[in-house]
Amino acid sequence: MTAVDDRLITDVAKFFEDLVVPEGFKAELLRGDIVMMAGPDWVHNLIILHVLKQIPLDRWYPVQTQDIAIPGETSEPQPDLVVVEHGAFDGPGRLVPAPATTLLVEVVSKNSVHTDYEIKRSMYAAGRVPAYLIIDPFEAVCVLLTKPTGRGEEADYDMELTTAFGLPVPLDVLGIKLDTTEFRTLPKFKRYRRP
To answer: pTM here?
Structure first.
């Protein structure tokens, strides 16, 4: 028989900080909810690798497995790639303030569609992240979001540019055009749509 701990968690951020995540999984704190996911697949990792190798290291720090602090939110997401300009954040610490980032990148998985397109979109906009790039290997598109506005769950990006794989994505915030010709795709799946 397993004992159930029925104590009320009053500080989810503290609980999250002390959480032991099983090997092969990642955990994020998203608007007060702890979300755990299996590690990424091969296509996902190759896409991140292709993005990472195009970012000029003389001006930018492109890092993976970096937690972000969103001001005014009970959220500590871990984007697939975080790009910070040299000198914008010098640490130390596990959390990089969202306003110190220049670009956050998420690669969509079957389990992250809603999170990447909706929850993180408003969360990153609320955190004033200048650019958020969603890379969707199921739809073979990149969605670049810029010009964050609003607060909380109502926050959003004013500019949205969708680019098909194979075409360059203008990442003006980094001063580059992202080559997507090597991005692989995954078979489409039926996405749940709310009425």
So the answer is: 0.83
